[in-house]
Structure formats: C-alpha cells, structure tokens
Design goal:
CATH superfamily of the largest domain in chain B: FAD/NAD(P)-binding domain
Number of helices of chain A: 4
Shape of chain A: globular
Number of strands of chain B: 17
Strand content of chain A: 15-25%
Number of domains of chain B: 3
Oligomer: heterodimer
Low-confidence stretches of chain B: none
CATH class of the largest domain in chain B: Alpha Beta
Shape of chain B: globular
Order of helices and strands of chain A: HEEHHEEHEE
CATH topology of one domain in chain A: Alpha-Beta Plaits
Radius of gyration of chain A: 14 Å
Low-confidence stretches of chain A: none
Largest sheet of chain A: 2 strands, antiparallel
Radius of gyration of chain B: 23 Å
CATH topology of the largest domain in chain B: FAD/NAD(P)-binding domain
Distance between the termini of chain A: 21 Å
Number of strands of chain A: 6
CATH architecture of one domain in chain A: 2-Layer Sandwich
Mean pLDDT of chain A: 98
Structural class of chain A: alpha+beta
Strand order of the largest sheet of chain A: 1-6
CATH architecture of the largest domain in chain B: 3-Layer(bba) Sandwich
Number of helices of chain B: 15
Amino acid sequence: MKTLSLEEKLFLDGFRPDQESHLAIKDPRVCLEKCTAKWCTFTCPVRTYRWEQDHISVFFEGCVECGTCRISCEFGNIEWRYPRGGFGVTFKYG
Amino acid sequence: MEKFDAVVVGAGPSGLVAAYVLAHNGLDVAVFERGDFPGAKNVMGGVMYNWPLAEIMPEFPGDAPLERHIIEQRAWILSPEAAFRVAHRSLAFDREPYNCYTVLRSRFDKWLAQRVRAAGALIIPETLVVGLLRDNGRVVGVRAGRDQGDVRADVVIAAEGVNGLLVEEAGLRGPLQPEHLASAVKEIIALPQGAIESRFEVSGDQGVTIELFGDATMGMLGTGFIYTNRESLSVGVGATIRDLNDRGINPNDLLEHLKAHPAVAPLLEGGETREYMAHLIPEGGLRAMPRLSTAGMLVVGDAAMMVNSLHREGANLAMLSGRLAAQAVLRAKERGDFSAGSLAYYDRAVRESVIYQDLYKYRNMTHFFEKHQHFFGLYPDLLNYAATEMLTVDGASKRRKQRRIFAEARRRRSLWRMFKDFFGAWRSVA
C-alpha cells in the first residue's frame, strides 16, 4: 500500500487547535545543558518536539494527546496538560 | 454550587459503566468528558469482550456499533524476513453470545454514552476537569475548565484514563515510569469487504485478530496487531517508552516498519489509511497500580493500571472496575458514609475480582520481560531460523540440520542462559 508521510497522516485526523499551547517546556536550560538524549524529539508519535539549535520547539497543533512525551522526558521537564474541553484532536474511528 | 451524588471524570468504558449503574439505582450522576462527544478522544487496539458488559447492560449488544465478532486469533512471531504463525479458530466463537468483537471506539463509546444518558446520567461533553476540590483532606468535587466550574459531589470517580492526572493530584501514586507504559500507534486502513473476507478467510460478520511479536517491535518489549473491522483493518504497534527512549525509535517509524514486513504487507495491499492515532497502554501491572480509593474518590480503568497486557484485556477490566466502584458508592450512599474506610469496600471488591486475580498471576511478567529482551529479538530470530533450516532440502541430513540449529543457538546464547530464560518466562506467567 502507499506509504504516507507523518504530515499526510495527520492531515487525515480532525483537529481544532486552541490559541495557546497545552504543552510547554518547564525549563529550557535543562534541554540545553542537561539533556543529551532529546527523547521527546523522537518518541512523540507525531513529532511534536523539534530541537532547533539551542531550544525545543513545540508544535502542539498536531498533538494527539497520548501522553508519551511526559513519561519519555526523564528530566520531567514537560509541562503536560490536556487541551481545553472541545479543543484538540477528534477521532472519527478511534 | 451544583452538587451531585457522584461525578465521573471521563466517558470511557469504566466511567460510563459506573455512571450507568449509579443512574440506574437512582443516583444523581454527572459525567465530564473533555472531547466534543464521548468517544472523540478514545482509542484502543480494538477488541471488546462481551463479558462483563452484557451482564451489566441488557441493551448490549443490541444495536451497538460492533465491527466483527472474532472467530480466530492468530499469533505471529516475526524475524526480519520470516514469520512463524500459530492460530486458533473455533465454531464456539461463531455462536452467540459472541466472545468478543472488534470495535471502533469513537463510535462505540458514543453508543454506550447514549445508553448511559437514557439511564438518567447527565453527560457533559467539551468540558475538561482541571483539578479536584478538597476539604480537610477529602475530595469533595471537581473543578471544571469553564466559568463557575466548581461542582461538588459525595464522591468523584476518576475514570480519566491512562495519564491519571487526578490520581497524581490526589497523591494516590507517584510519577508514571517509562517501563510501565507502552506508547502505541495505530492506523485505520480501509479495504473492501471482499478483500478482507478472502485475505482473512472469513464471511459475514466473522473476524480475525493477529498479534505480532519479535521484529514487529524491532525487538523491543511490545507487540503489534492487525484486527479486522467491517471495511477496514486496525493495524498498530506499541513498545514501552523505556525501550523507545533507549533505542531512539519513533513509534510511527516502527509502524511503517511493521507494515512493510513481508508477511504483513500482502494483507494491507491496496488499503488506504483513514486515520492515525496514538495512545498509552498501562502495562505496569499490579506492582504499578495506584491506591484505588481515598476519602471521596475512587479510581477505575486505565487510570488504575487495570490492563492485562498478555491477553490484551483492558476495556473489559475497566468496565468491571466501573461496576465495582458504583456498587461501593451505592453502599456508601446507603450508609451516608463516604470516608476512606467506607470506600475501601471498592479495594476489597477489586481484590476478590478477576481483575486482581489475573493481574496477580502476571505480577512479575512485565518486570521479567523488561530484563529479558531476548524474547523479542533473539528467540523469534532463532525460531524462524530453525524452521527455515528444517524445511530447506539441501542434501544435509535432518540430524545434521538439528546440529546446525543447536550450534547457531549456542553461538548466540549459552545453553544454561537459554534454560534460565525459558524457566523464568514460564515462572513469570505460570
């Protein structure tokens, strides 16, 4: 079957992004100074987190709200909440 | 401020069943759901057992949106280029009441919520519960993320799912550990009904499940799966966050790896992906279970780590826990006592139930396999190597082939270690 890129897959899902991110890096210095592994940049199933030279960028709009990042960050440096009620992903099939 | 007999946080299997039982018995129940509708955020692999729902809710199965009843369960042990397959099919699974069904949770949970509403519970969608209300150390309600969102209740049932933020806020467990959670991803892949019937050897509403081990997870602790729906397949894979962290693997890449496996790809040929999703599976078992109750609050379902990962049972255990929690609340209501001591009745009920009995049986399993990853890499490879070797006719005698296989196995792992591995594995599930 045809292989879709992650971006193409996310295009299939229904999203209603909030204005503000429900995810945040607690202390950017931990990412810069202590974290060499950068787990969040690869364990997130939708690649919400990207390392950009000296900081993590959080692309919360495509978050599917699984919670992997919160557990994956062994420094506990991700402030993780659910989006406000009615926002975020909606699954047609689930 | 509004006051209910009970507030349920989360409209999934555990919360909805709890609300159903409470509403049926005349209690004022509100269910908070953060999605647009119940089911909007809910994900699982896809197998829903008949028990205990049929026993709790006479309307089930009725007109519930079920996909296929499962008549055959397969297990495939993969090496990178081979598959060792075992399967069990029985007419017993083709007779009503069916043992289990595939479901699509967005639709199924919506249906379940309608039954719960009909029983008299108030379901409040699009509303996130952001915290607990507490008074003198007891939970007395929830704070909903909306104006004047404080809602009081005699008891709060935390059916919030695997992430368990309220469970943490209540101090019922410490932080979740990467080795206790699997990150799983899944695609819904549309296929014509005829293709599903011929590829999986089924007709009508019959269905098949396949669990995939070994190269399915690139040797990590976890499993893959293929489940047949009416006109689609649920194809997914999960591995512990500990292993994803240590191996540097992205779950979507893992899924593409699985889909490309030579034994898997032909089943998916011509399919079209319709949806992609991710979800955590609480696999820590009994050792990682939080405290189940405190004054004014009970914990059910995934939030309570009630998953039997070996048998991929979760929603059924969640529903049973929802029922047991509701029964504890009814008893507390009768006595007018929602103290920790009174609600501990729920803990005892869980302990006497199949939830605890099965999780107790497998209490050492997760820990064992976490320390013995050869079961996901080395041994699936050796099994397939042995099968390929024995089935290849090349002039070598069968005895010589056996010697080759043993030599290869011993080259990769000592006899004593293999013995210890398998004895340990047996002990961890016996």
